[in-house]
Amino acid sequence: MILAIANQKGGVGKTTTAINLAAALAQKKSKTLLMDLDPQANCTLSFIDHHQLGTTVYEAMTESELTIKDSVHHTSIPTLDIVPARITLAKFESKMMGELDSHFRLKDRLKPVLRQYDYIVIDTPPTLGLLTVNALVAATHLLVPIQSSYFALEGTDDLLETVEKIKARPNPGLEFLGVVITLHDKRTILGRDIKNHIKEVFGNKVFKTIISRSVRLEESPAYKESIFSYSPNSSGALEYYRLSEEVIGRV
Predict the structure, then answer these.
(1) Distance in angstroms between the alpha carbons of the first and the last residue of the chain
(2) How far is it, in rounded angstroms, from Cα 215 to Cα 32?
């Protein structure tokens, strides 16, 4: 399973979901690869000091003699590896200009490692540019985090339209796995109303597990830990563990 986590709207808990869903799958002893395809590199910095970075996803996707296998780094979780990013990834789109295989770079470079992992989780940038398209072309499934806020559904039409275009030609097997509501505050009337509205729009595609707004989830990356090692008894750890079970159940 190759799971792209995408939403062109920023600040929706996309990277937090990528980190902790990948960690939750790894907690189940499933061999998991977390791929950082966002030039902000927040997934990477949650596990690796930037001084320790060697080959990153940028080199693996742009240099003909390399594959993703050359950029895999181990993490402190035995069953979780990461393909890191750095800010140079922002040059990917201009670097690929005029290249006929630009949409397929990630898919092609992933082939040597596919059999090594049960799950590959891809964090994408908050845009619908070439990096996100590469993730969607390579993925078998798509998960969309949507923040429980007033502008929650802003931009999702464009994302789903892009998904349909990708399904029509380069990746007809791509499945829309579902929507996860994030940064939810169940204490407010607005939070409850937005949750109900998201469920009205997406129906049974909305995961039952809702990710609550949590200080522990915000703190854990600063200590280079997932929520499961930083605060294993927190609501965030419980919610992401439940989400991982739902993801497995839907595949």
Answers:
(1) 8
(2) 26
Is the pLDDT assigned to residue 152 strictly greater than 80? no
Give the pLDDT of residue 190: 81
CATH number at residue 80: 3.40.50.300
Q: Residue 97 is encoded by which pair of tokens?
A: 């200009």
**Which neighbouring-strand residues pair with 73?**
82
For the chain, the average pLDDT equals 93
CB 67 within 8 A of CB 35: no
Specify the DSSP class assigned to residue 213.
P
The tokens describing 161, both together, are 């339209």
Q: Number of folded domains in the chain?
A: 1
Instruction: Give the number of other CB atoms < 10 A from CB of residue 183.
Output: 22
Other Cβ atoms less than 10 A from the Cβ of 101: the count is 9
Instruction: Give the span between the Cα atoms of 154 and 159, in whole angstroms.
Output: 10
Strands 80-83 and 73-74, bridge-based pairing: antiparallel
Which residue segment(s) compose the domain that 104 sits in? 2-250
Inter-residue contact 4 to 152 (CB < 8 Å): no
- DSSP letter, residue 129: S
